[in-house]
Amino acid sequence: MRELLAALRRPIDELCARGLPSLASPDGEERVLELAGQMASAARALSAAFAGKSARPASEAEHLRCKKTAEDLALLAESVATMGRLPLSERQRVVALGLRLCAGVAMYLPAPSDKRPVSAVAPTPIAKPQAVPSSRQAPVKVAAPSASELPADPLLQPLLGLPGVGPVTAEKLAARGLERVIDALYFLPRRYDDLRQVVPVGQLQPGVLQATVVLVERTRVVWARKRFLEVSFRGEDGSPLLARWFYFHGGYQKRLLPGKRFLLTATPSKFRDSLQVTHPDLLDLPPRAEQEDGALPDGSGHIRIRYPDVEGVPGRLIERLCQGLCSKYAELVPDGVPAQLLGRLSLPSLPDSLRELHSLPSETAPELLMRLNEGLAPPQRRLIFEELFFLQLGLLRRRRAIAADDATVCLTSDDSLSSLRAVLPFVPTAAQERAIVELRGDLQQPHPMQRLLHGDVGSGKTLVAYAACELVMSSGHQAAVMAPTEILAEQHYKTLHGWAKATGRKLALLTATTPKTARKTTVAQLQAGRFAEVLRIAEATGQPLDRESILAMLRAGFLDMVVGTHALIAEAVEFHDLALVVIDEQHRFGVSQRAALRRKGRQPHILVMTATPIPRTLALTLYGDLDVSQLDELPPGRTPPVTKVLPGRSSEKRALLAVRKAVAEGRQAYWVCPLIEDSDKLELSSATARHAALATALPELRVGLVHGRLSSDERDDVMERFRRRELEVLVATTVIEVGVDVPNASLMVIESAERFGLAQLHQLRGRVGRGSGASLCLLLHGSGLGTDSGAVLPAEEGREEDEDAKKPRKRRSTQSEDAAASGPQAAPHRLEVVAATSDGFRLAEADLRIRGPGEVLGTRQSGLPPLRFADLLRDIDLLTIARREAAALLARDPELSRPEHAVTSRVLAERWAHCDLTLE
Ligand code: ADP
Ligand code: MG
């Protein structure tokens, strides 16, 4: 099997060494195809070997693993076999997949008896551990290399089988991403505790982590609002120290018997006039009489290196594992940042950095310790830099790769858009015109457009997107627009339908609620290819086209364009000639959804749109591979809404007055109900309750209700009535957040606004101020039905606050973050920030600071390698440098094919192996 793996790895290595961009250059094509052939047959053979192994497995787990591996390999063989027909970006994806599979397979093969790594950075023989579980064997010295066999990279060896790591522990480690030696090297300490001096209790400083020797005086459980354990200690100098545990079990009391002596480590805080500690660390000490003066046991008097907790695995084991492996193998970790660059930036090498982080010398200066605890010491900066450097290299390369693919050229004349212009009820803004020119330029290129259209809510992105579609359609191809919600898709359809009619294009709407099947008579007509007739009847009867008809018409190329939700990516949806994909509010989609739509065409042009304002530095990261068109101008006649924060119980009354006033002026109002995390049901009941309350409070007005649980017909009906002014007030859940457009609405009331993210509030606010005349947005805080009457919310709130500390961050958990991060005072402050600025960019920055980039931008599903060390806000300086250096490196060596960049090229491929190398 090892040979088979080597046979697979060889062509892959050569393909990587040639540089990924050259995978599709005409002069090397023959060799690439030859290598692809080798890859395919090696993958097939290896797949067969695994299939055989899965037939006679040692365990059920092994059976499953082998079966899965066999399948993956077969799939790889299949994709590689078609290499000749694949565009560059797909070729890269296939090679990356191969690389990943190889690494996976290597991990599970038993280590050969005598091998040495031929990793480019591992010139010296090293000791390596037994990979097969065996009680306490000493590491074996490595003998001479044997060139014919695949190198068993020690860094990829499993942790399972190392001393202390049995199957149970291995599983627990794996749950934290610790599977291989390399993972342990990158599992970095979270804190360094300076315990070199033991301080008498009387001299403890508040706010600083210190160690001191204490005796237990009294232990008791206190039943307050929350049960806690309270222990009175006394230092050897006679000073008292109070300690509390809010999480504890019976074992604590047994251990903390009066008279027992401990080395206590904690950061004391000042409480009234004395010092107090919570959840201190305790190390048992023998009674004073038995201990020689000053001599403290192991673990004290040092810098203690603290690793993140791994559930079910003792801290000591983690420590030993990480530190032991680091001292052995750090040298082998391939350093992908060119040495010359490291020198210029005064950053330490990767092995040095890892070694320093895992084992600090005991004479480390306190200042350095402080930097380390802030995450800003040189070895940490080095890891951060590297992460950002490879991120940027990958983005830049990804961009080049797609730019090299072939795409449909859409040649259009200057007056292609004249019939569209003729029906527009407005004159496009200069920004819209500029964006259209940019898009048109892209569409005329023989390579796929990769463009982000970026503009604040209401800046008119829809028109620009349609103009692009129109250009594509006028040169005879199809376009698709995908929106994140049904409401939005329907609204796009309505807008675009009018424009499409005027320009003679055929357009359909496809969502999850589109009628599934065609009538019998329709089926017959579809089969006869009489699409025009089907469409005519549908329009004449006012019925929407059914899914069956739409699919047939798209496949036949009869429809020019389709608008829809993710229903568009269903397998059954096929296009005749899809040349443009538009994705609205792209951050709402996952990577795979975007990729799936893209694959429906042959390298279609791509336009993604977002209203999430992104600070420039972050745009570089997230969209580093996209061209950006910016709509930096709102259509004329808009006055940004005035925003007011109304705190307290009276806020509701004031909001009601505002509603009356708006309606008296002939305008309409939205009333948005609180966002309730993870609970559609509560969200719904609070909206229903609010609807009833408003109907009672405003008997003279017509109040509608719209929420996510309504069928699309019902929702449509309500929205339509609101649009036609048959309803004056619309109570809504956040379904109206994106894109809904009713220009006559001039008042937006947002209840419990503190539950929303800043960017979300900005989006909601963007629903008003769309027509002429003044508009108003009221952010209610600390009011609402729930909080007043106890009807809906209090239980929910209580639960959330309680669990704040333990809960991982969730995408919509703005409310709990407020409470956790900045206390109850923070909400009004955040709301004031929204009130104070209508500048989406400034808000985005504030939002980032409060919620973190992962939350705001959905980086987690952005298809980028995860950032483990870098913090996109804190490390903006390194990001900028990384960007610059990555571009400079690619300018000198675009394919990273020079020998001195071999490691860089390999590390890059590995880092991105889990990401799609193509634009999603
Ligand atoms: P967004 O960028 O938020 O998607 P839309 O495309 O939905 O914005 O446009 C918002 C509103 O502005 C729509 O009612 C649209 O008809 C209108 N609009 C777009 N462009 C212009 C323009 N140039 N002049 C006047 N109104 C416009
Ligand atoms: Mg929009």
What does this entry look like structurally?
- This protein is α/β, with parallel strands linked by helices.
- The chain contains 33 helices and 22 strands.
- The strands form four sheets. The protein has a seven-stranded mixed β-sheet with strand order 6-7-4-3-2-5-8, with no helix packed on it.
- A hairpin with a 2-residue loop joins strand 6 and strand 7.
- The site of adenosine-5'-diphosphate (ADP) has 19 residues, from helix 15.
Strand order of the largest sheet: 6-7-4-3-2-5-8
Which value, in Å, is the CA radius of gyration?
A: 32 Å
**Helix/strand/pairing category:** alpha/beta
Number of strands: 22
How much β-strand is present in the residues?
A: 5-15%
Helix content: 40-55%
Rounded average pLDDT: 80
Distance from N terminus to C terminus (CA atoms, Å) equals 36 Å
